[in-house]
Design brief:
The structure holds 2 protein chains of 2 kinds. Chain A is an all-beta fold. Chain A is 0% helix and 50% strand. Chain A has no helices and 11 strands. In chain A, strands 2, 4, 5, 6, 9, 10 and 11 form a 7-stranded mixed sheet that branches. In chain A, strands 1-3-8-7 form a 4-stranded antiparallel sheet, with no helix packed on it. The N and C termini of chain B lie far apart (41 Å). Chain B is built from no helices and 12 strands. Chain B is 0% helix and 52% strand. Classes of the chains: A mainly beta, B mainly beta. Chains A and B meet through β5 and β9 of A and β5, β6 and β10 of B.
Chain lengths: 114, 115
């Protein structure tokens, strides 16, 4: 089954404790992206990647890091989380060659930073 | 640059009534348009998409959308909603050249269906 898998689904942590949210897709997609969703603000793009070893900042990259060492994986790293990073996070993937290809989303990771 | 505006943040409606969720976009290039739905505690899934051809596009669960190039709109409609349609709906645009191929999302419209 074609899917984007994010882990964990829920995460509660404390300020400053490094964490990683994993994202994996099995559709051989070149394009992968991270979004955060906050009430009233919709989806805001954090980082995206057009292919292996190619990453770019989205609209709200501050406080986040990503890596794309393999095509299927695109982890999101918070080196020193702060309470303003409490949010619902989504990973998504899509074909880069076919612009008509929709995004496939993971089920989300709800992060709480205290 | 491209942008998407969803004119209503929340749309309350009674069950079996018709509904329209509005979406306007701006782009300097040709675009592909998408509607996604997010049910409570789930990720987004594709509802329908406009690529080319007929301006009326049909999607899943009885939804349809009409592409209007002159008004740069892509409004989503359903003639009779059900309680299970309660969800967040996102309009998105993807351009056909340059950096515009990065998808751009609207802020979402919360559809609330009352019994």
């Amino acid at each position: 089954e074609a899917q984007v898998t994010q882990n964990p689904r829920y995460l509660i942590t404390v300020t400053g404790k490094k964490l990683t949210v994993t994202c994996s897709q099995n559709m051989n997609h070149e394009y992968m992206s991270w979004y955060r969703q906050d009430p009233g603000l919709g989806l805001r793009q954090i980082y995206y990647s057009m292919n292996v070893e190619v990453t770019d900042k989205g609209d709200v990259p501050e406080g986040y890091k990503v890596s794309r060492k393999e095509k299927r994986n695109f982890p999101l790293i918070l080196e020193s989380p702060s309470p303003n990073q409490t949010s619902l996070y989504f990973c998504a993937s899509s074909s880069a060659q076919s612009l008509t290809s929709p995004l496939h989303f993971g089920n989300g990771t709800r992060l709480t930073v205290t | 640059a491209q942008s998407v505006t969803q004119l209503d943040s929340q749309v309350p409606v009674f069950e079996e009534a018709p509904v329209e969720l509005r979406c306007n976009y701006s782009s300097s290039v040709s675009v592909y348009l998408f509607w996604y739905v997010q049910y409570p505690n789930q990720g987004l899934q594709l509802l329908l998409k406009y690529l080319s051809g007929s301006t009326l596009v049909k999607g899943i669960n009885g939804f349809e959308a009409e592409f209007n190039k002159s008004q740069t709109s892509f409004h989503l409609r359903k003639p009779s909603v059900h309680i299970s349609d309660t969800a967040e709906y996102f309009c998105a645009v993807r351009g056909t050249s340059g950096g515009s191929y990065i998808p751009t999302f609207g802020r979402g419209t919360s559809l609330i269906v009352h019994p």
